[in-house]
Design goal:
It is built from 24 helices and 27 strands. It is an alpha+beta fold. It folds into four domains: 142 residues, tt1808, chain A (Alpha-Beta Complex); 112 residues; 236 residues, Rossmann fold; 150 residues, Adenine-n6-DNA-methyltransferase TaqI, Chain A, domain 2. The strands form seven sheets. The chain has a nine-stranded mixed β-sheet, sandwiched between helices. Strand 20 and strand 21 form a beta hairpin. Helix 10 runs parallel beside helix 18, helix 15 packs parallel to helix 17 and helix 19 runs antiparallel to helix 24. The longest helix has 35 residues. The chain is globular.
Length: 812
Amino acid sequence: MEIRSEEDVKIHYLPHVLRTAGYDTDLVGYNVPIQVQQGRKVRTIFADAVVYADKSRTRPLVVVETKPPEPLKKGDADQAISYARLLDQIAPVVLLTNGTPSGTIAYDAFTKKKLTDGLPSPGSLSPGGARSQKAHSGLAAEARHELFKVDDVREFKRILRACHNAIRNNEGYDPTKAFDELSKVMFTKLYEEKAGKNRFRLRTYDEFLDSNMNVVHQIFRETAKSNEYKGLFVDGEAIELSDRTIRELVSQLEGYDLSLTNFDVKGEAFEHFLGDTFTGGLGQYFTPRNVVEFIVQALGPRAGQKAIDPFCGTGGFLIKWHEVVEDAINEMPISDDLRKQYLDTLNRESLYGIDWNERTSLACRMNMTVHGEGQSAENIFKQSGYADVPGKVEEGAFDVCITNPPFGASESDPTILKAHEIGQGRKSIERAALALERALRLVKPGGWVGIIVMDGILSNASTRFVRDYVRKHAHVRALISLTPETFEAYGGRSDTTILLLEKKAQPSESPEPEPTFMAVCRNTGYAPNGAEIPGNELPAILEAYQGWRKGQEPTTPNTWTAVVKDRLDPRNYWRPEAQLGDRDDLDKGLRGLLDDIGETARLVQQISEEIDAVMAGTPATVHKLGDLLTEVVENEVLDDDTEYPLLGVRWWGGGAFVREHKKGVDIKSRTHRVIRAGNIVYNRLFAYRASFAIVGPECDGVYASNEFPTYDAKETAHDPALLKRYIVHALNSPVYLPVVDAESSGSTKTSRNRFRQQAFEAFEVAVPDDPADLEKLVRLFDQADRVRERLAALAESSKDLRTLLAPIIAQP
């Protein structure tokens, strides 16, 4: 079965893993609640699964943390280990899995170390032994401390948003200026915490202000001069906020110890804050997280390598590179002194970035500092990415260049053009084209480049000279086509491709033909508005590429190898696999098409025969829907770490469906309705577009906001199921839809107009008096719906037939 969601991992993949390791799946508890108390604070957390030693379920062996089939994130294991330590008896093993073999990892809950042999057998574990009893108190206290830090991304986002809004509302600054000022205050708070002082308090602030001194201004001056934040702010810079606004920010931030907050939490929240702030005019400085993770992992970061991003924006590539290498160093079986030496090299000498824009270069340094990479932030420079930084950024100095250069802009500076082979003799050239040469010049022979380029440069006849330069100086190892939606939320909808290049030892005018890994990614995990959606194909493509590098032929859908000729856009080489079916396949397809046509014709004939029985009219009585139906409200508080299936209702009578899966932390409302099969559901916002439906069994137990009211039938003379189906048919019909539209109310007709529950319950519908007449009408409309479904199926069948026939034209 295809694993598409965290729920699939939990229900379908996890039992297989456990059985393979010898565990009894009847001894698994799911969504196990754990109550945690520290002082007066109490939280209930839920372990995705706990495997017990016996039926008494008192001795835990394994705590399982399931994740969706996407790359695992730093901190996922720490969370699961904390849960294992907070059980009444510590579970000795933690299993983290995203539904893939490479993403299924076991850890020792006591030491946090990865178990290199994978999940141990149950017979080798000793639950509740002397070791766990002795260690329990200290480990549980550590776990509680971790949980009660500001470790909630949602909460940290709320804090940042509230502070940002206070600045905009009080000062009238635009979003980017508000970002600048909030950043100053936030780093002032971080500096004060790390200095061990206690001046960033509302009470202290007010006391100093009574003496005509703003203590936050004083702390900021110290922050700007400190070694840790050296270079973040220019000399003489000050916080440009009124005393009133600063006081609001102090009140929001004083209760939180940001120096203790997990770097992952601060980093994710800060990146979200950056995205909200800069989307639009500065949106080009962001590369979506899924794409960043793919390119970094594909390049295989190693300790000791020097990496450069000459167009670093807010630093996404550098931060991910640091994270991967840091994790690798921490897992090395080496001495603490050597590990410290490696980490020091990583922090001081391994990562470099350049950006021409003052605000984004500053944002990059701040972003890296928030992620715990303050020393690396000293190697971020504000200048042109096409020019060297003497002694720091020079040609041939790096092992890796990883970048997403600006789209759609041209470079006309004569000095820069003359310094590049493909720019010489030209008045201007696309900067992204020039970036290809710049990236290759920055790395040493044998070095690698991971870069995103618009397909126009990779395919147009006018830019052939750019591709000639690339093939002359580099082995083209991989080309991965991305969807146009990938960058649409950041202001650019265009076809783009990831290039993975290995610089040649010597340039070659006539490159030897060699295979290149290619892929067409049809889903990068992003909708056009930037929201994450299920179905991200990049992890599967990454696994196929890594396998190919080890000598395995790619078998993942839409991955293949080909010899590059002129063009470097993989879609030019893409030929969906076509195999000629035999005569039996063709006959089967034709018979299926004829059967579909016959079934549709029979349905139409039935409607023709039965319609006369109801055309004469049936006695009916007008009822308010509130007299026939009662609203069903089953609310549930959402858990941040749980992934929820969310309901949608298709327009024009298309029915209810599971629209997407989202984690609780990514859902705005703290509570959602649980939807049950058999009930009527409708979309308040788009009721006028026939979005009324009966919830099918496939949607039983999914979740929806209060924009999707649900109703069940009251006791009447009619069969409840038939009555509900009749009401849905009626409301979706042209007879009633104009009335639904007229009864809807809201501020804007086309965007916020809603058919609210009060209007729904007061709505009048004519219902046949005779239950037999009601059944006839429902059956007639059901048949009409089936005709529509059959016609849609016929359209698909005709496509299937063309697919069966298509390979004939490819025969020699």
